[in-house]
Amino acid sequence: MQSVKDLFGKRIKELRKARNLTQEQLAELVDIDTRNIIKIENSETFPRVKTLDKLLEVFQISASEIFQTAHLENSDLLRKKIFQKLEEDEELTKLIYKMLF
Hints:
Organism: Candidatus Scatenecus faecavium
Largest sheet: none
Structural class: mainly alpha
Number of domains: 2
CATH class of the largest domain: Mainly Alpha
Low-confidence stretches: none
Keywords: DNA-binding
Strand content: under 5%
Number of helices: 7
Shape: elongated
Pfam families: HTH_19
Mean pLDDT: 89
Order of helices and strands: HHHHHHH
Helix content: over 70%
CATH topology of the largest domain: 434 Repressor (Amino-terminal Domain)
Number of strands: 0
GO molecular function: DNA binding
Protein name: Helix-turn-helix transcriptional regulator
């Protein structure tokens, strides 16, 4: 299982790329050095509260949304969770089948 710091770094990178921002542009918007963005994305450090607040503002998301990282977990673990949910819920299985096929 990945650490919170690992998942958070991946989430910041995902949010940055979704907004077509470079690390340099994000650093400028958040008013920190580009090296700090790189360290955050590489899970070497965790942002200070002030920086976290600025990231939330730049990405226009809530604090809870920035920590939504379940989709970044290992693919095998995600498949296991999906199959377990599908086994438990027949209606969900039918709905997903209709969506896919």
